Amino acid sequence: MSEFIMDFGWRVYHPNPSKPTFKPPAGAVDAHCHVFGPGDVFPYALERKYTPCDGPKEKLWALRDHLGFSRNVIVQATCHGADNRALVDALEDSNGLARGVATVHRDITAERLQVLHAVGVRGVRFNFVKRLVDKLPFDSLAEISEKISPLGWHVVIYFEASELPELYDFFASLPTIVVVDHLGRPDVNKPVEGDEFGLFLHLLQENDNFWCKVSCPERLSRQHSYNYDDVVPFARKVVETFPDRVLWGTDWPHPNMKSHTPDEGALVDFIPRIATTEELQHKLLVDNPMNLYWPEEQA
Ligand code: 0GY
Fold first, then answer.
1. Tens of pLDDT, residues 242-286
2. Distance from C-alpha of 252 to C-alpha of 56, rounded to nearest angstrom
């Protein structure tokens, strides 16, 4: 399969992803993906730490259909800062089949939050990954979480496992549902039963408002075979321990991936390795994301 690299340092998404062997259950949700630009319409943020390739909504809808999924949750990435226009544009174009997670500043008004709610935003993202953002004060994030709480929104957090000890108390103080991106980015060379991942499991165990995306084996794997074997025990542990609080997503178009170009068909085929029964797969791909993002459609 041909691959190409553009001069901004990371690989463009796969031009021709394979058709997965695993057939997702009807109504499956890709609960972590992005839209980028197009940059000439929705410019990238001045404060960004990387410039992505454009990842327009039409490509995302085509990928959804190709993979056998029904819906998307589009997550605001740091390259668009707190300018949510590309996200809003995609949500408006989605016929109700996409919901969003935005980035907002502490001075966001209740009226603006209502506008975002009306187009399908259901959460805000706090990013703590140092290569992606400058540090934000906890009091600013706490104020945002208080503002969004009455809307029934949740907070999505993205951090490295090594940072969890110093972030733990702040996370545990958040008043809403909290969704952790990409398994809390564990170092998968460390043991699943070790202290580092143990602290993350403890966070989920002690706080039943915490959910976890079992996503991004392509980012977390330290193997060069790109079959992500080393991520399986971490993801399986979370799926099997917290089956009602897990989500899955492609992370298309995979910003900052340098090691290889992920094939989304292969990522979908990873799902039955971490959610090994039909019941777990249905919770992961349908029940849980529908409960969180489309509760009004649930019985
Ligand atoms: C992801 C992962 C990354 C980037 C961002 O907001 C972002 O820029 O989340 C990353 O570089 O690990 O979820 O897209």
1. 999 999 999 999 999 988 999 999 999 999 999 999 999 999 999
2. 11
The ligand 1 atom at the shortest distance from the C-alpha of residue 125 is 6
Residues designated catalytic: 251
pTM (2 d.p.): 0.96
Distance 77 CA to ligand 1 centre (A): 6
Q: Whose CA is nearest to atom 9 of ligand 1?
A: 77
281 Cα: distance to centroid of ligand 1 (angstroms): 25
